[in-house]
Write a structure and sequence with these properties.
Chains A, B: This is Catabolite control protein A. The structure is a homodimer. By secondary structure, chain A is of the alpha/beta class. The first copy, chain A, has three domains: 44 residues, no CATH class; 131 residues, Response regulator (Rossmann fold), CATH 3.40.50; 124 residues, Rossmann fold, CATH 3.40.50.2300. Chain A is built from 14 helices and twelve strands. In chain A, β6, α10 and β7 form a beta-alpha-beta unit. In chain A, α1 crosses α3. Chain A binds a DNA duplex through α2 and α4.
Chain lengths: 325, 325
DNA sequence: TTGTAAGCGTTATCAA
DNA sequence: TTGATAACGCTTACAA
């Protein structure tokens, strides 16, 4: 491995002159420049970022903490992050929490040990302990961003899609399609998030009728346990708050000889490849996952550079109309 | 930030004693141990991995170079890699080449600058230049693994699924379903890879008839340009060498009122979530992407530790029967 | 059992 | 315009 000292010797200049030249802090004589360039080429010098990091006591590494990466929702966000970090010459660490069997505290220990420049949290964590953990990070003065869903603001920047707007958009669309009896179908959605959808419904609905709420529990059979209930309640529009669930419900409805859209419209919250693949193709609310990643990365960079940044970023969802609603 | 020196002072021991104690290179007096433990707790010491790396001239960072991460094929492999690296306390860098607008040479420069412990290449790169690049890495003595498809062996470990076996399995399955006129449908598949599928076909077929080969070009309309040709040739079994293409072709066939399986069976090469979502669900050849990632990580770790490793790993594909074939 | 001192590759300070 | 020196935090001969 060729070091600064090596090329210094080879070029008959001091190491610090070369260092300053390479970091363009000084102007050197044409002659010196030539000697340095030659030595670098001849010896094949590559700077050592680890030494730089130690010297400056900061790295160019940003970590993304994510439940799992083999999931289009998370990987789309991560790709957005990667795009921005790459443009600014930062490296991207990935820590898959579900996969690694690491506790949150262990992950954070890792972050400190590695002098991580900033941390982007994606996805939901075990609520109570998580808030404590993230507050610890802030205490250590590591820049942090949390991107996913609304949560009580705790002194770190938050990014999330406007779920009330998402709900309003979706419900208005269903109304437009002459669907009047709406059901929200979800899985494990905590109450405080569900309330945003109800709020969106109220905003979209002129009169005072209420939507049906249906929670799918683990191991439930959609055909046997859910569809009959939808029919009993004369539901003609389903707003499924989870894209994969929307796909599966659509399949079950088709299998039960219910016409999608004509009999029951299905609207998906979340718009990835799988909405396009589903038959019929799903009309979906796009929550802008890639944009969420991009903005998260921009905010973490602002923090790292001690520039101003938005404490809260709310993204506007939009609807993509296909066949199912 | 608390350093070794700080706790040394606080505990009235020398820094090197603590260092050796923490790395369990020596046994210390009970009393010393207690003092050290206390100091660490009171001052909240966290070791500095960057300094360690500089000292040892090696990092615990492995880089995955991948075209894009928001793709189930790549993210599944990456997740496998992440799992193994995490277990062995290595960190995972992701570099998305398609996304970053970085040339291969620039990426490799980055690897050297950051003292990357090892590099895992996933996916296809611009062939000619890529082989040159990867050979450079080997020259620099950075452990490298290439996981994707067969290529001329060039002195670095290779991992890929057995495509001949995949083809044989698939064709045998189609024969079993009484499909006799088989077409291979593909997109951008280079000839040397296509030949494996033909070889697999030969192995599965007793007589000497040949399959039809259909290449889908950019911008082609499956309904207008492909399906008529399949029908003209009395094709009753299609082996699609790209999962997404299999999904789209299935859609087009359904739209043309052709019964999947009964009229034309569709078999997909590649088995991710999207095969399950497709209607009808696709019978697929699973190429073991996660396992490919896992084995890649294991091999890179062996290399890093200067242990023995397999130069070539060929994974056995298997078939997952669903509805379409 | 513990401590001293040098050094990993880089850069900031100060001096020339 | 350049150079000597010390320092970032940690480890490792070598010495005690």
């Amino acid at each position: 491995m060729t070091t600064l000292k090596d090329i210094a010797k080879h070029a008959n200049v001091s190491a610090c002159t070369i260092s300053r030249y390479l970091n363009s802090n000084i102007v050197v004589k044409k002659e010196t420049e030539a000697k340095i360039q030659l030595a670098i080429k001849e010896l094949g010098y590559v700077t050592n970022v680890v030494a730089k990091s130690l010297k400056h006591m900061e790295t160019f590494n940003v970590a993304v903490i994510v439940p799992k990466i083999n999931n289009l929702y998370y990987s789309e966000m991560t790709s957005g992050i990667s795009q921005i970090l790459g443009k600014h010459h930062y490296n991207l660490y990935i820590y898959e929490v579900d996969n690694l069997n690491l506790s949150e505290d262990e992950v954070l220990q890792l972050m400190r040990e590695n002098m991580i420049a900033g941390i982007i949290f994606i996805g939901l964590f075990s609520d109570v302990s998580f808030k404590e953990t993230i507050r610890n990070v802030v205490e250590w003065n590591i820049p942090v961003v949390y991107a996913n869903r609304y949560m009580d603001y705790n002194g770190f920047p938050l990014l999330y899609p406007d779920l009330v707007k998402a709900s309003k958009l979706g419900v208005e669309h269903l109304f437009l399609k002459d669907k009047r009896r709406i059901a929200f179908v979800h899985k494990n959605l905590p109450d405080h998030l569900l309330s945003y959808f109800l709020e969106g419904y109220s905003q979209a609905s002129k009169d005072e009728n209420k939507p049906m709420i249906m929670e799918i529990e683990e191991g439930m059979d959609l055909s046997k346990d859910c569809i009959p209930k939808l029919l009993q309640n004369n539901i003609d529009g389903v707003f499924v708050l989870n894209e994969m669930l929307a796909v599966n419900l659509t399949k079950a409805l088709v299998q039960a000889d219910i016409r999608i859209l004509e009999d029951i419209a299905v609207l998906s919250l979340g718009n990835s490849l799988i909405s396009e693949i589903s038959t019929p193709e799903l009309t979906s609310i796009d929550l802008q996952n890639r944009e969420l990643g991009i903005r998260s990365a921009e905010i973490i960079l602002s923090q790292i550079r001690k520039e101003a940044f938005e404490p809260i970023t709310v993204l506007e969802p939009f609807i993509v109309e296909r066949r199912s609603a």
